[in-house]
Predict the 3D structure of the following.
Amino acid sequence: MIAPPERMPERDAAILGMLPNVSFDGWTKRALRAGVRDAGLPADEADLLFPLGTVDMIETFCDLADRRMEEVAAALPETKLSARVRAVIALRLEQNRPYKEAIRRGLAVLALPQNARAAAKCTARTVDAIWHAAGDRSVDFSWYTKRAILAAVYSATVLYWLRDTSEDDVDTLAFLDRRLAGVGRIGRLRGRAESLIERLPRPRALRMGDTG
């Protein structure tokens, strides 16, 4: 797992305090100073809490959202893994609905070429948190495959969600269901193909070289 940004109660409080201002001022020192003030922290801590600047703030927000998601997801009912993945993503969208404009602005910052690495780290950590919250504990090669697939599904869903004006994100959840259904079909086709390959006769050269 990719290491998260520094975790401190003061950093979390400052981020939560600044989020309402990000919608107007962006991920700026001005929004941060207002957030520090609203969180009841000393004003001079604004420059000390996030020494790496804007990207540090955004990464901290993403990490905080991951932790809040995992905490609440622990109470989700036990169902099959695919249903829990869907439920965890729906939960995350619901939790972040008040911060949609802040997320839009954050993604615009992360889309800059110089921030590509930070963007990739945020996505990787979030996708890993979703799988973990859904109850996936696999450590085999499928760990990478599943996370790569979910990264594509989750990223597309967030972009759709940012434009969605439907009540309770119903259009976005329908979009998510279609993407997950597509992944399920790919998984079933892959399973059938692997099963067929296993039943095919092995080439003579391989049989001759088989020492087992």
